[in-house]
Design brief:
The protein is mainly α and about 110 residues long. Helix content is about 70%, strand content about 0%. It has helices at about 5-20, 20-40, 50-55, 60-75, 80-105.
C-alpha cells in the first residue's frame, strides 16, 4: 500500500513540473489517468477478456494497482499474482522517481 501512493506522487511531480497552469493538470487527469482507470479491470475481471485484449490490458499499470488493492481487501481474489503486481508497481515507481530526480536536477519546469 506504500508503492501506489508513491507512484502517484511521482506522477504528480512530473505533472506539476510540466504544467504551466492548472488546465494542464486537468488534461493529465482527463486524458491519461481516467482512461487508464476505466480500462484497468476496475469494473470487470481479466478473465472476461480473451486473447490479445488480455495482453493489451496487462500493459496498463492500473491493472496491477487494482489487483493489489483488491487482493488486500478480499484475499484469494486476484487476476494477477500479488507478487507480480508488487514487482511491476515497484519497478515503475523506481523508474518514475528516477525521472523526477533527473527533471529536478535539470531544473525542468522550475524556472520560467
Amino acid at each position: 500500500m506504500l508503492v501506489i501512493p508513491t507512484l502517484f506522487a511521482g506522477f504528480g511531480v512530473i505533472g506539476g513540473l510540466w504544467a504551466s497552469d492548472f488546465d494542464y493538470l486537468t488534461v493529465m487527469n482527463q486524458f491519461i489517468i481516467r482512461p487508464l482507470v476505466f480500462f484497468g479491470a476496475v469494473f470487470y475481471p481479466l478473465d472476461a477478456l480473451s486473447g490479445i485484449w488480455r495482453q493489451v490490458t496487462l500493459l496498463n499499470p492500473m491493472v496491477y494497482m487494482v489487483n493489489g488493492v483488491r487482493y488486500g481487501v478480499i484475499p484469494q481474489t486476484t487476476d494477477v499474482a500479488p507478487s507480480v503486481s508488487l514487482a511491476v508497481l515497484s519497478g515503475l515507481t523506481v523508474a518514475v522517481v528516477a525521472v523526477d530526480i533527473a527533471l529536478v536536477k535539470r531544473g525542468y519546469g522550475l524556472v520560467d
